[in-house]
Design brief:
Layout (H helix, E strand, L loop, with lengths): L11 E4 L6 H10 L4 E4 L13 E4 L25 E4 L1 H9 L3 E17 L17 E14 L5 E6 L6 E4 L4 E4 L11 H12 L6 H16 L3 E5 L4 H14 L4 E7 L7 H11 L5 E5 L1 H8 L5 H22 L8 E4 L4 H6 L17 H8 L3 E2 L7 H10 L4 H4 L35 E13 L2 E11 L8 H13 L3 E7 L9 E2 L6 H20 L11 E4 L1 E2 L5 E5 L2 E2 L7 E2 L4 H11 L5 E7 L12
Parallel strand pairs: 1-2, 1-3, 3-4, 4-9, 10-11, 10-13, 11-12, 13-14, 16-17, 21-24
Antiparallel strand pairs: 5-6, 5-7, 7-8, 8-9, 15-16, 17-24, 18-20, 19-21, 22-23
Bound molecules: xanthosine-5'-monophosphate (XMP).
Length: 607
């Protein structure tokens, strides 16, 4: 997927061992003003001549397993700074003749570390802006038990003696934790210190915008581009960028109404793009076709594939009708951004978490034929937004919450029969709090791998002032109960009630019900002035309630900076009450829950 060629001299290269975080590292590095490029771990050292520094990412495997990803040990001869993170630390340790073994305990989540070095002993250059103790994000089972020659320990945690170590002479650094995730305090200071000592060439979104014009022109040659516009930030910025580079007569937009969009969304997109004077936009109502194809489809990945394939079928039909075929000189534009690529297992070693609709097989075949242009595929969300502003797009459009391509399709849980599992009740441990397992599963991510597990609902007397024990349970339960990857709080019921399951797939009726609930939530979020403070706010429909045919709603407000990690956002009581009161007036909705889980162990969306 990635070339083994460096695009910019004096940039930072991330060798991707397949963790979920390689792109996050790159996006952080870019925010410090250096270009960061991700390359496969097996990239030969000779191809990395001229790099300013190398970061070795984490990854899901154990370095001592056969077939685990390996880098070229000659990178140590390049005499540039190298930073190994998690698996990157393990690989570096092993490659330089240290020892890596399975640790006594697996550590997932927040951990306190103590920085070594005071008095005569020098503190690490990476920790010069950090206090003596701080909290970091760990996600590992293995650890370095013997350091390679020349290395000194620079930090330690209760569970991991060698939480950080380095060879200051050769500028080789190793961290067992993830400085790139927001849960790590001072993570930015640590990464910035590493980037600074690499002394890279300067880079910015502005300079990227200037450079991408040439790249797009050479990829597109004399084709015209047909662009699927969803109204989300990415496809709108990509459409505008292509329009600005190739000219309006070479770019045609198509907005497919899938029936899975938000209330009034199609009208709002038409209005916004109309104001931008991007006139080549056709709107096609294909909702009947989507619902027909989704009848009787229950499994999350199968739903995504049907949505993706229907999208492409509609696009092909409309493009044939409009004469926008490859034979007539047209190719397809997409607003794919970097994280979409990694989450589909686009990099060789990443575990597949979810299939993104812009990487289904039909699209992949077109990519292979050189008939797809993705002008944002190297950028992160915040960079896409900056680029949108550079292009003169309105603030409200650029700062819209991200909305997944398959739309409400991934927020309407489908199941043919209830899926039940037994887990111990929390009541014995926490008086006043009761629990009940949901009869459906959702997707999560733990230790760099995908999970598909049950959610546990908690019940308590006053859910509006979310008790601290409940918050603690939301972290503890998925770590200690292997069947559970999500924890919810019931907002409509103080005590468990028998769940009544009703089989459901993706129908227009269910989409309409969720659309109403979602619109109510968004209205209350805006009214409370919270829209820009919250990263994203999925509202999810579950196929069970307290009566036959009844359903439930989950509120999933999220705080994040890049969607790679996230925390449940705290909402003011008044806003939460207003949302729940309104949702409970909807006919067909019996219960409302609040999702309290971080990512990891849950993902932002439920599917
Ligand atoms: P997860 O649920 O994986 O989501 O934590 C991370 C971010 O990606 C969005 N998302 C998608 N976006 N197509 C998209 O264009 C998809 O299939 C898709 N699935 C998840 C999600 O909304 C969040 O912002």
């Amino acid at each position: 997927m990635y070339s083994m060629r460096m695009e910019h001299p004096q940039s930072i290269v991330i060798l991707d061992f397949g963790g979920q975080y390689a792109h996050l590292i790159a996006s952080r590095v870019r925010r410090f003003g250096a270009y960061a490029q991700i390359l496969p771990p097996e990239t030969p050292a000779s191809a990395l001549q001229g790099a300013a520094g190398i970061i070795l990412s984490g990854g899901p495997q154990s370095v001592y397993e056969s077939g685990s990803p390996q880098a070229d040990p000659k990178i140590f001869d390049l005499k540039i700074p190298i930073l190994g993170l998690c698996y990157g630390l393990h690989w570096m340790t092993q490659a330089l003749d240290g020892t890596v073994m399975q640790g006594k305990v697996k550590e997932y989540g927040r951990t306190r570390i103590r920085v070594e070095g005071s008095g005569s002993c020098q503190r690490s250059m990476l920790f010069h802006a950090c206090p003596e103790e701080f909290v970091v994000w760990m996600s590992h089972g293995d650890e370095a038990t013997e350091l390679p020659a020349g290395f000194v320990r620079t930090a330690t945690s209760d569970a991991c003696a060698n939480a950080a170590f380095e060879d200051p002479k050769r500028k080789l650094f190793a961290l067992q934790f993830h400085p790139e995730v927001t849960h790590t305090q001072h993570g930015n200071d640590i990464l910035r210190s590493f980037v600074e000592l690499c002394n890279p060439a300067p880079w910015s979104v502005k300079s990227y915008a200037a450079h991408i014009g040439d790249v797009i022109r050479s990829e597109v040659e004399d084709h015209k581009v047909f662009m699927l516009v969803s109204g989300g930030v990415d496809s709108t910025v990509a459409f505008t960028l292509l329009d600005s580079i190739l000219g309006t007569d070479r770019v045609q937009g198509l907005l497919v109404d899938t029936g899975l969009m938000r209330k009034d969304e199609v009208r709002q997109i038409e209005e916004a793009l109309g104001k931008l004077k991007l006139p080549n936009l056709r709107v096609e109502d294909a909702s009947e076709e989507f619902f027909a194809n989704l009848t009787g489809v229950y499994e999350p990945e199968a739903k995504r594939k049907v949505i993706g394939d229907t999208f492409v079928a509609v696009q092909q039909r409309v493009s044939a009708e409009m004469g926008l075929t490859a034979e007539q000189g047209w190719m397809l534009g997409q607003g794919t951004i970097y994280p979409d690529t990694i989450e589909t297992g686009g990099t060789k070693h990443a575990d597949q978490i979810k299939t993104h609709h812009n990487r289904v097989q039909m699209i992949q075949e077109m990519i292979d034929k050189g008939l797809v242009v993705e002008p944002l595929k190297d950028l992160y969300k915040d960079e896409v937004r900056k680029l949108g502003e550079e292009l003169g797009l309105p603030h409200d459009l650029v700062w819209r919450h991200p909305f997944p391509g398959p739309g409400l399709g991934v927020r309407i849980l489908c199941a043919e029969k209830p899926d039940v599992v037994d887990v111990p009740s929390v009541e014995n441990q926490k008086p006043g709090i009761r629990s009940q397992v949901l009869p459906v599963k959702s997707v999560g991510v733990q230790g760099d791998g995908r999970t598909y597990r049950h959610a546990l609902a908690l019940f308590c007397e006053d859910p509006f002032s979310v008790p601290p024990e409940v918050e603690r349970l939301a972290t503890e339960i998925p770590n200690t109960t292997p069947q559970i990857n999500r924890v919810l709080l019931s907002m409509s019921h103080a005590e468990p009630v028998p769940f009544v399951f009703t089989p459901g797939f993706l129908s227009r009726e269910r989409a309409n019900l969720l659309r109403e609930a979602d619109a109510m939530v968004m209205e209350e979020v805006r009214k409370a002035g919270l829209y820009e403070a919250i990263w994203q706010f999925p509202v999810v429909l579950l196929p069970f309630g307290t009566r036959t045919g009844g359903q439930s709603i989950v509120l999933r407000p999220i705080e994040s900076t890049d969607a790679m990690t996230a925390d449940a956002a705290h909402l003011p009581e008044s806003a939460l009450r207003a949302m729940i009161e309104r949702i409970m007036t909807l006919s067909g909705i019996d219960m409302v829950f609040l999702d309290l889980t971080s990512k990891p162990p849950a993902t932002i969306e439920w599917e």
